[in-house]
Amino acid sequence: MINKKFEGIYAVLVTPFKEDESLDEERLRAHADRVIEEGVDGVIVGGSTGEFASLSEEERKTLIKLVIEHVNGRVPVLAGGMAPSTKETIRWCKFAEDAGADGLMIVSPYYGAQTDEALYQHFKKVAESVNIPIMPYNNTDTSGNDLVPDIIIRLVKEGKVNYLKECVDTRRMQIIKEACGDKINIFTGVDDLIFQGFVLGAAGCVSGGANVVPRVVKKLYNLIVKENDIRAARELWYKYVPLAALFEAPKVWLPNIKAACEIVGDPVGRCRKPLLPVSEEKKKGIRNLLENLGAV
Length: 296
Description:
Helices cover 47% and strands 12% of the residues. It is α/β, with parallel strands linked by helices. It has a single domain (8-228), classed as Alpha-Beta Barrel (TIM Barrel). It has an eight-stranded parallel β-barrel with strand order 1-2-3-4-5-6-7-8, surrounded by six helices. β7, α8 (194-199) and β8 (204-207) form a beta-alpha-beta unit.
């Protein structure tokens, strides 16, 4: 089933909107080009940062097809296959696979509370229903369900998955890595764990910040993973971490990311309501952090 190796910096793409909140397809193409040209190793379409939950079915399909076609093999494309039920998750995953996605990112079923066995059965069934890799995505805040290490370890040992996007903490990464070794490729799923994750041996990161400063996130990866220069990486990290915190700030992380994109010259529009844009005062603070990083 697993036929590609995903590693490095994966930008989970924002979805650009026009003033009337319709999709801005031209801007999306330009945005994807920029992050690829600035060094990301892959892109993810239809994730939480892409506001998938606020899109219609046709809009989600349009996004997936557009990004896959436009990227055209320059880097791997993972597509979000998220849905509250196993049946709908499989439907979305098959759609993305048929559209040419290289892999799938799937958050735990959301809204309804699930047992550990139910979560295991969900991901097992999805993995068995497609022929491309799936990356289970543990985001307890948005899904309301915790994909605990025992579930992932079981799925890995049965050969159902060998990727994980972990958003909770690095202790879990250590537990899973110790149990599964090279059979698992762990991606950090929040920007404020990137440094720790790579030091601990993460294969990559799923980064919202890579929409804004892909060169910076890629440099962190190169310094730690490729060059083993922890001292230089730490220096860069402490310049980036105040931005990383804003890009993970509860309730306002996505407006912060879109505001930062505008500041660096990549206007992707506002978020869909009910998400509100950041204030002008907040934009000044974001600009100061970007200037300190040398990004503007």
